[in-house]
C-alpha cells in the first residue's frame, strides 16, 4: 500500500529536498523571463510548491484596500517560508570587525515581486499558474529535461502582440482580395471567345 506517500523523494533527504524546492522556487519567481530549465521530476514537484505560494499572493491581492493589513502581513510571512533568503552580497569590507553585513536579497526580492506583481496578474485565475514543457533528454546522463514557466509572462505577451500586429495588415489584404475576386467573375462571364 502507498498510503501517505504523496511526493517524489528525488533521491534526497527531507531537508535537502525542501531546500532544493525553495531554491528552485526562488529562481523561478526571480527569473527575468519567468522560466527555468530543470529535470522533469523536479519540475513536477516544483509546480504545486510554487502554485501554493502564488495562491497566498492572490489572497493578499483580494484583501488589499479592505483595511486588513495584518492579514496581508501574515500572508507575506507565510509566503517567505517558501523561499531562501539568498546569499549575502559581497561588500568590500565584509568580514571585518565593526562592519555589518548587507541584508540577504534573493528571497526578499521574490516575496516582494510575488506580492507586488504576480498577485495582481493572477488575481482572476483560480489556479494553474505554471506550465511544464518537455525538452527531451540531456546528452550527458539521459535525464529528461523540462522548462517550467509562469503563465502570462512578458515573453508570451510580446509574442501575442506581434501576432496580432501581423494579423491586422493581412486582414486588410484579404478585404482587397475579396474585391478583386468579386470583379474577376464579371470578366470571366465574357468568356474567351468574345475577346
Description of the molecule:
This protein has 195 residues and is mostly helical. 56% of the residues lie in helices and 10% in strands. It folds into two domains: 14-151, 50s Ribosomal Protein L17, Chain: A (Alpha-Beta Complex), CATH 3.90.1030; 153-195. The longest helix has 41 residues, at 154-194.
Overall pLDDT level: 83
**pLDDT < 50 runs, ≥5 residues:** 179-188
**Structural class, judged by helices and strands?**
mainly alpha
CATH architecture classification name of the largest domain: Alpha-Beta Complex
Number of alpha- plus pi-helical segments:
5
- Name the beta content range: 5-15%
CATH superfamily of the largest domain: Ribosomal protein L17
User: Would you state the CATH class of the largest domain?
Assistant: Alpha Beta
Report the CATH topology name of the largest domain: 50s Ribosomal Protein L17, Chain: A
Biggest sheet: strand arrangement: 1-3-2
Q: What would a concise description of this structure say?
A:
The protein is mostly helical. The protein is built from five helices and three strands; from the N terminus they run H-E-H-H-H-E-E-H. The protein has a three-stranded antiparallel sheet, covered by helices on one side.
Amino acid at each position: 500500500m502507498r498510503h501517505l506517500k504523496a511526493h517524489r523523494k528525488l533521491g534526497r533527504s527531507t531537508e535537502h529536498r525542501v531546500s532544493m524546492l525553495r531554491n528552485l522556487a526562488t529562481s523561478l519567481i526571480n527569473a527575468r523571463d519567468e522560466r527555468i530549465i530543470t529535470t522533469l521530476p523536479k519540475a513536477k514537484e516544483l509546480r504545486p510548491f510554487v502554485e501554493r505560494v502564488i495562491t497566498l499572493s492572490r489572497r493578499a491581492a483580494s484583501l488589499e484596500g479592505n483595511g486588513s493589513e495584518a492579514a496581508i502581513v501574515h500572508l507575506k510571512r507565510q509566503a517567505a517560508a517558501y523561499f531562501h533568503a539568498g546569499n549575502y552580497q559581497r561588500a568590500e569590507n565584509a568580514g571585518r570587525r565593526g562592519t555589518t553585513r548587507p541584508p540577504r536579497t534573493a528571497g526578499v526580492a521574490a516575496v516582494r515581486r510575488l506580492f507586488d506583481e504576480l498577485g495582481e496578474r493572477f488575481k482572476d485565475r483560480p489556479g494553474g499558474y505554471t506550465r511544464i514543457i518537455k525538452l527531451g533528454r540531456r546528452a550527458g546522463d539521459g535525464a529528461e529535461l523540462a522548462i517550467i514557466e509562469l503563465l502570462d509572462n512578458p515573453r508570451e505577451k510580446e509574442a501575442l502582440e506581434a501576432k496580432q500586429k501581423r494579423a491586422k495588415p493581412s486582414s486588410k489584404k484579404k478585404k482587397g482580395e475579396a474585391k478583386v475576386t468579386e470583379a474577376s467573375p464579371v470578366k470571366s462571364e465574357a468568356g474567351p471567345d468574345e475577346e
